[in-house]
Amino acid sequence: MSRYRGPRFKKIRRLGALPGLTNKKPKVGSDLRNQSRSGKRSQYRIRLEEKQKLRFHYGLTERQLIKYVRIARQAKGSTGQVLLQLLEMRLDNIIFRLGMASTIPGARQLVNHRHILVNGHIVDIPSYRCKPRDIIMTKDEQKSKDMIQTYLDSSLQHELPKHLTLQAAQYKGIVNQIIDSNWVGLKINELLVVEYYSRQT
């Protein structure tokens, strides 16, 4: 299944706020109307919606998400927490969390168009896994800086996660450590996602 490119507002009306997909918010009461029409939800549907929420927030294909679940299963620790850490440490998500892009698709475009350096080298792979002490910078070109500045100006009021440091004047972000799962910017029950895939694979 390919990456979703359809109406974003339709997804947040059904699944709730997805800050990585769009900064728009559903209208007050829209979730209640949807729930009243749909009636009681089955356990399968609850797990499916949690999986969809994770997939659409991070902008992943089904194949990519399955791959991350398999990697998380093989790692030490809680599979759900490891899964969230893997997704949060993606380069496109780090750029979004630093405020250098308004959404994860926007951050992915910056990476694909080679506007981003990691440790002084251009990285054009949005799924690049960032590590502690990585330095993420904008390419030293005015066009790149102007694009990033627009996003930084509108995101300065947001609280920055503790695992990141932003030096806005230098268009630079630093990864301090692996993210604490408490700082994941999405209301998600990751265990339901793991359970969903345990029944599918």
UniProtKB/TrEMBL annotation:
<dbReference type="InterPro" id="IPR005709">
    <property type="entry name" value="Ribosomal_uS4_bac-type"/>
</dbReference>
<dbReference type="GO" id="GO:0003735">
    <property type="term" value="F:structural constituent of ribosome"/>
</dbReference>
<dbReference type="InterPro" id="IPR018079">
    <property type="entry name" value="Ribosomal_uS4_CS"/>
</dbReference>
<keyword id="KW-0687">Ribonucleoprotein</keyword>
<dbReference type="GO" id="GO:0019843">
    <property type="term" value="F:rRNA binding"/>
</dbReference>
<dbReference type="GO" id="GO:0006412">
    <property type="term" value="P:translation"/>
</dbReference>
<dbReference type="InterPro" id="IPR002942">
    <property type="entry name" value="S4_RNA-bd"/>
</dbReference>
<dbReference type="InterPro" id="IPR022801">
    <property type="entry name" value="Ribosomal_uS4"/>
</dbReference>
<dbReference type="InterPro" id="IPR036986">
    <property type="entry name" value="S4_RNA-bd_sf"/>
</dbReference>
<feature type="region of interest" description="Disordered">
    <location>
        <begin position="20"/>
        <end position="43"/>
    </location>
</feature>
<dbReference type="Pfam" id="PF00163">
    <property type="entry name" value="Ribosomal_S4"/>
</dbReference>
<comment type="function">
    <text>With S5 and S12 plays an important role in translational accuracy.</text>
</comment>
<protein>
    <recommendedName>
        <fullName>Small ribosomal subunit protein uS4c</fullName>
    </recommendedName>
</protein>
<feature type="domain" description="RNA-binding S4">
    <location>
        <begin position="89"/>
        <end position="153"/>
    </location>
</feature>
<keyword id="KW-0934">Plastid</keyword>
<comment type="similarity">
    <text>Belongs to the universal ribosomal protein uS4 family.</text>
</comment>
<dbReference type="GO" id="GO:0009507">
    <property type="term" value="C:chloroplast"/>
</dbReference>
<dbReference type="InterPro" id="IPR001912">
    <property type="entry name" value="Ribosomal_uS4_N"/>
</dbReference>
<comment type="function">
    <text>One of the primary rRNA binding proteins, it binds directly to 16S rRNA where it nucleates assembly of the body of the 30S subunit.</text>
</comment>
<keyword id="KW-0689">Ribosomal protein</keyword>
<dbReference type="GO" id="GO:0015935">
    <property type="term" value="C:small ribosomal subunit"/>
</dbReference>
<dbReference type="GO" id="GO:0042274">
    <property type="term" value="P:ribosomal small subunit biogenesis"/>
</dbReference>
<feature type="domain" description="Small ribosomal subunit protein uS4 N-terminal">
    <location>
        <begin position="3"/>
        <end position="88"/>
    </location>
</feature>
<dbReference type="Pfam" id="PF01479">
    <property type="entry name" value="S4"/>
</dbReference>
<keyword id="KW-0150">Chloroplast</keyword>
<comment type="subunit">
    <text>Part of the 30S ribosomal subunit. Contacts protein S5. The interaction surface between S4 and S5 is involved in control of translational fidelity.</text>
</comment>
<keyword id="KW-0694">RNA-binding</keyword>
<keyword id="KW-0699">rRNA-binding</keyword>
